[in-house]
Specification:
This protein has a single domain, classed as 3-Layer(aba) Sandwich (Rossmann fold). It is about 50% helix and about 20% strand. It is built from four helices and four strands; from the N terminus they run H-H-E-H-E-H-E-E. A hairpin with a 3-residue loop joins strand 3 and strand 4.
Length: about 110
């Protein structure tokens, strides 16, 4: 039997497992530390639209838990589809900062 995880699970399944472990450990760590922030970079990598939507819904469920602990959850995304899923799942309570474009002369155009 092959015990190599990468041949038994898809990249999306590996990413889902890693995200779940990271978020669980990060939320638990807030109990004993004053870090105040959880950063997640492109969690939608290798996920199809269905799982991106599920991830956005999960993030919407854990965001209040993070806020209750006095911390914030910051998520960097590059995919428009996942961005829209997050926006929809989080609703009006979320503060969304979107970098629209970047040029050498002006830097980033930011929309709040």
């Amino acid at each position: 039997m092959d015990s190599n995880v990468s041949t038994r699970l898809s990249q999306g399944q590996i990413n889902c497992t890693a995200i779940a472990c990271f978020l669980a450990l990060a939320i638990k760590a807030l109990d004993g530390h004053n870090c105040g922030i959880i950063l997640v970079d492109e969690p939608e990598q290798s996920l199809d639209a269905y799982h991106q939507r599920k991830l956005a819904d999960l993030i919407a469920k854990i965001a209040p838990v993070v806020a209750e602990k006095g911390a914030c959850l910051q998520i960097a995304v590059t995919g428009v589809e996942f961005f829209n899923f997050l926006k929809s799942s989080l609703g009006d309570d979320a503060q969304i900062i979107q970098f629209k474009e970047w040029t050498e002369n002006t830097g980033s155009v930011v929309e709040f």
